[in-house]
Design goal:
The structure is a single chain. With 523 residues, the protein is of the alpha/beta class. Helix content is 36%, strand content 19%. It contains 15 helices and 20 strands. The chain has helices spanning 4-10, 20-36, 99-108, 153-178, 188-200, 204-217, 222-234, 238-251, 256-261, 335-347, 373-376, 378-393, 412-422, 466-478, 507-517; strands spanning 41-42, 48-53, 62-73, 78-81, 88-92, 113-118, 139-147, 151-152, 184-185, 267-270, 287-289, 297-299, 305-309, 320-324, 332-333, 351-356, 405-410, 432-436, 454-459, 484-488. Helix 4 packs across helix 5 and helix 4 crosses helix 6 (204-217). The radius of gyration is 27 Å and the shape is elongated. It starts with a helix and ends in a 6-residue tail after the last helix.
């Protein structure tokens, strides 16, 4: 969703905003004003505000228009702003905007202007609205209001829908259109807001109907196709969602919302220029099992590759992450521990590279009882080190900034990641690493001091890797490193991105927050 008022209504972020540099400076001024506390009032709810101009009429309920707004994060970074000359309608008392925004509008009334500082509880709460608004985000608003004499078309259609469903809403729209929408506020943004209110209530079919009416009326607006894509996605129609997102991107290549759902296809790149060194005499044949309890699994890998999941340019953060799946170095779990993770990173603007590393030939059923992890994983570690080199060599072409090449490993993939992280050549190490219920499972390696930033996560009830991961964490600490560790009470081994309804489900949110805090995803 990318229309500005509807961002306020539907809790999503618009793509692109005018004069970002100037707006950033104004965000700095807003933050400075909030920090000084000078001449700020505080409401009973905790809203802090400064009235710049009192309005002529206080609002109890009813339609109102926003002549101007600016939205910033508490750190001074820009989130959203209205376009010059744009007037956007909403209904006070209709629960269409966040609590703090509505409270601020009630404080000034028509023609008024206010600077409001919303604690996260009055904005988007504990969870935020990822990816646009992180959890617990305090927000700053500058708002100027105008009045609307006419009733909003959206309100009229809402009443019609409540009375007779979609057919009644369409009939009412047709009658209004026949009069040229006389006596109605019927700007483009108005029905977008209605559609997202429908979506919020789980009425995707009604949202689709409203937006189809608006697309017919405003066929040259990229935002209409973007919004219709959201509605079709919510309705479960992936094909029509994709078609509308692509139409929006054709009209506006900077549409970040559409770009986050229309992702470029993955590209497979050989890891080595020829036969991988050290295994020239391997004669095994690679075998893929597409449907297992953990998704796609591959065995007997001889020719290692990187599969690149590159984000759309409008979404790219400049970060790249190599992903090594687990499987005891006798198999690779390419589903929940690689491809699924890569797709999530890609949608968050992070280039992801699934590493299909070499593993010895699988003979017999199950895990070999005499498996030596140091031997089984040594080829994968060599491939991991090579993967860092390949990604860095192509970083510019892939939109990755210097100093932002990371390595993520799951289970045995954590051993691959730690091998690349601990290699003697400090310059060839990744710039950061994430070890998910994985570490060096063989003999404890030498731990260098001053390693790149490390993120770790595992579950206390992991019967396979829990003790080994904790031991590796202690070794890192003893060497003077300070990894960030998340130890979940439950989740078991191999949770990947599966939904288990345990706190381990949230590890990837913690990872994104850690990336942001360390500046790896700062645009």
């Amino acid at each position: 969703m990318t229309i500005r008022l509807a961002w306020l209504l539907a809790l999503a972020l618009l793509a692109g905003a005018p004069a970002v540099a100037a707006t950033d400076a104004r965000c700095g001024a807003l933050v400075a004003g909030a920090g000084s506390g000078a001449h700020l009032s505080v409401s009973a709810s905790g809203l802090r505000y400064r009235v710049l101009k009192a309005g002529t009429k206080r609002l109890a309920n009813g339609n109102v228009a926003i002549e101007h707004y600016l939205v910033c994060f508490a750190n001074g970074s820009f989130l959203d702003a209205s376009a010059p000359g744009q007037t956007l309608a909403f209904t006070v008392g209709g629960k269409q905007v966040v609590r703090g925004f509505e409270e601020a509008t009630r404080l000034i009334g028509i023609g008024g202007e206010i600077q409001a500082y919303l604690p996260y509880a009055l904005a988007y709460g504990e969870k935020g609205r990822p990816p646009a608004v992180p959890p617990r985000s305090d927000l700053l608003f500058d708002i100027r209001l105008a009045g609307i004499d006419d009733a909003a078309l959206s309100t009229t259609l809402q009443h019609a829908y409540d009375a007779g469903g979609i057919p009644s809403m369409k009939r009412t729209y047709a009658r209004a259109a026949a009069t040229g929408f006389k006596g109605l506020y019927a700007a483009e943004d108005d029905l977008v807001g209605l559609a997202y209110r429908f979506l919020k209530k789980g009425r995707a079919d009604a949202a689709v109907a409203a937006l189809e009416l608006n697309v017919a009326r405003f066929p040259h607006s990229w935002n209409e196709y973007d919004s219709l894509g959201d509605a079709y996605r919510a309705a479960g129609n992936a094909a029509l969602a994709d078609a509308n997102y692509r139409r929006a991107l054709q009209m506006n290549p900077k549409d970040q919302n559409a770009a986050s759902f229309v992702t470029p296809p993955a590209a497979v790149i050989p890891l080595w220029p020829g036969v991988a060194p050290g295994t020239e005499n391997w004669t095994q044949h690679e075998v893929t099992y597409p449907k297992t309890p953990v998704g796609e699994v591959v065995m007997n890998v001889v020719s290692p590759t990187l599969t690149a999941y590159l984000p759309a340019p409008a979404m790219a953060t400049g970060a790249g992450v190599i992903i090594a799946p687990g499987g005891y170095c006798v198999a690779l779990a390419l589903g929940a521990e690689a491809n699924d993770v890569a797709a999530i990173l890609q949608r968050r603007g992070i280039a992801a590279f699934v590493l299909k590393y070499r593993i010895p030939e699988k003979k017999g059923e199950g895990i070999p009882k005499d498996l030596d992890m140091d031997v089984a994983c040594k080829y994968g570690i060599a491939d991991g080190i090579q993967a860092v080199k390949v990604v860095r060599q192509r970083a510019a072409a892939w939109g990755i900034k210097p100093g932002r090449v990371g390595f993520m490993g799951f289970s045995a993939g954590g051993m691959i990641a730690s091998g690349a992280l601990l290699q003697p050549d400090a310059a060839a190490r990744p710039d950061f690493a994430a070890l998910l219920y994985g570490a060096s499972f063989g003999a404890m390696p030498v731990i260098p001091a001053k390693l790149p930033p490390i993120f770790m996560a595992w579950a206390q009830d992991d019967p396979i890797a829990g003790d080994a991961v904790a031991k590796f964490y202690d070794a890192l600490r003893a060497a003077g490193d300070k990894p960030e560790a998340h130890i979940f009470s439950a989740g078991g081994h191999g949770f990947g991105v599966k939904v288990q309804h345990t706190t381990s489900d949230r590890w990837i949110d913690e990872f994104f927050a850690w990336l942001d805090a360390n500046g790896f995803t700062k645009r």
